[in-house]
Amino acid sequence: MGLKLNRPAEYASRPNAPMSAALRRRLFLVRVVWLVVFILTIGLFFSSIPTYYDSLIKLTDISIKPDTLRSNLESLGVSIDFYATFLLSLSVTSMMVWCAVGAVIFWRKPDDWMAVFTSLCLILFGTFTLDDVPILLAERYSTLWLPVHLMAFFGSVSFLLFFFLFPNGRFVPRWTRWILIFYAVHEVAYYFFPNSVLNTDRSFPILDLMIILISWCIGMGSQVYRYRRVSGPVQRQQTKWVVLGIVSAVLGAIGFASPLYIVPKFDQFGSLFTFVLEAGLTGSLLLIPLSIGVALVHDRLWDVDIIINRTLIYGALTVSLTLLYFGGIAMLQRVFVALTGQQSTLAVVASTLLIAALFNPLRRRIRAVIDRRFYRRKYDARKTLEVFSTKLRDETDLGALSDDLVGVVRETMQPAHVSLWLRPDAASKGK
Question: pLDDT (tens digit, 9 = 90+) per residue, 286-336?
Fold first, then answer.
C-alpha cells in the first residue's frame, strides 16, 4: 500500500533567478554603503564613551538631583565610579549585541536585500535611537550634531519600516506607507527641530506618546495581517520568531521598568535592586535583535511553535499558581485569625500542598485550552488521528479502511491532492 501526496504550490521551492549586471552593481553599492555606515557607527559610539562616562561621574546626565543620588549611593556603599562603570557597561553591551547581530545577518546573507536592510536597521536603531550615548557627543561638538541626529533619525524610521516590509520587502497592507510617512515627519521634528512647536515631545507630550504607540501598534498589526493573509509557511515561521522576541522583550521591559517608575526608591538608586532592574531592562530589549537574527539567518525555524506553546502554557501556569498560592494564604490566615485570634504557619503549609496537588491537573487543563484556542488545527488533527486509531482496531473492511485513511490524510495534512494504491498480493499474482 502506498500513499502519494502533492503539496500545495506555496510549499514548492523556487530557484533563485540569476542577477543582472545592473542588479549586481546596485548590490555592490549597497554593500559599500553598509560598510561605511557600520564603520561610522562604531567610530561615533566609541568616541562618545569618554563624554558619556564623564557625564555619569559628574552626575549631570540624570533626572535625579545629584545630591540625592550621591547620598543614596553612599548609603548603599556603592561608589560613583561603580555606578558610572555599571551604566556604561550596559550601554556598551547593548550596542555590541545589536551591531553584532546586524553584522552576522549581513555576513550570512549579503545578497538578500531585506537582510541587508534589516542589518542596517538593527545597527542604527541599537546604537543611535535606543541609547543616547552618541547624542551627548553631538551636543558637545557641534560639527557632529547633524550626522549623529541623521543616523538616529534613520534608525528610528527604518525600524518601523522593518515591520511594514518584513519578511518579503513589500508594504502589507499597502496603505501602511502613509503611516510611515506620517511617522517620518514626526521624527524629523523631534530630531532636527527640537525647540519647535512641531516637536510634539516638547509641546504636546501626550499627543507624542499617542503617535508613537499608534504607529508601532499598526506596525505589529501589519505583521499579524501579513501572517494571516499573505505569508507562506517559511515566512510565517520567521514572523513567529520576530513577534515572539518583540512581545517577550516588551513584557520583560514593562516588568523591569515598572518598579523604576512606580517606586521612587528604585528610581533614585535607593536600593541595590535598582541595578538588577536596569540590567533586566537592558537584557529584555536584547531579545529583539536576537529573535530577528534567528528569523533571518537560521535555516530551520520549525521549533518556534514548541517554544511559543511552552511559553504560553508555563506562563499561564505560573501566574495561576502564584495567584492561588498567595490567595490561599490570605484566605486561610483570615480563617485562622477568626477562629484562634492569631495567624498560623499552617496557612503557608496548606497552600503549598494545594499548589503541589494542582500542578499537573492545572497544567493539563491549561494546555488543552491553549491547544484549542491557539493551535486549533493541530488539536483537531490529533483528535482525528485518535478517532482513526480507535476505528483501526475494529475495522475489517479494507475498502472502508482505505477511504478512512484518505479522509484522515486530507483532513490533517491538507494536501492539494491525495491518492492511495494497494500493492497486489504476491500469492494472488501467481494464480
Answer: 999 998 998 888 655 445 556 566 666 666 777 777 777 777 777 877 777
Give 247's Cβ-side CA count (13 Å radius).
13
- Is residue 150 within 8 A of residue 50, CB to CB? The reply is no
> If you count DSSP H runs as helices and E runs as strands, how many of each does the chain have, helices first?
18, 2
Cis bond leading into 205, ω under 30°?
no
Whole-model pTM above 0.85?
A: no
Give phi and psi for 4, each to the nearest 5. Answer: -115, 125
How do the domains of the chain map onto residue ranges?
Answer: 26-302, 312-374, 383-424
Q: Which three cell numbers stand for residue 276?
A: 538588577
End-to-end CA distance of the chain: 20
Q: How far is CA 358 from CA 323, 333, 335, 410, in A?
A: 13, 20, 21, 39
With a cut of 60, say whether residue 88 has pLDDT above it: yes
Give residue 350's Cα distance to chain centre.
39
> If DSSP codes are grouped into helix, strand and coil, which group holds residue 397?
coil
Locate cell 550570512: which residue?
108
Peptide bond before 167: cis, by omega within 30 degrees of 0?
yes
| Cell 561610522 -> residue | 40
pLDDT band at 355 (very low <50, low <70, confident <90, very high): confident
Choose among 151, 303, 302, 318: nearest CA to 251: 318
Instruction: Say if residues 258 and 65 touch (Cβ distance below 8 Å).
Output: no
At a CB cut-off of 8 Å and minimum separation 6, what does 235 contact? 167, 168, 226
Q: How many CB atoms lie within 10 A of CB 28?
A: 11
Task: Report angle CA 263, 266, 267 to the nearest 5 degrees.
Answer: 85
For residues 233 and 283, the answer to whether their CB atoms sit within 8 Å is no
What is the enclosing helix (H) or strand (E) of 168?
A: none
Joined together, the cell numbers standing for residue 367 give 494546555
Buried residues in 229-244 as b, exposed as e (16+ CB within 10 A): eebeeebbbbbbbbbb
Residue 219, burial from CB neighbour count under 10 angstroms (0-12, 13-18, 19+): buried
C-alpha cell belonging to residue 421: 494504491
Three cell numbers, residue 257: 521598568
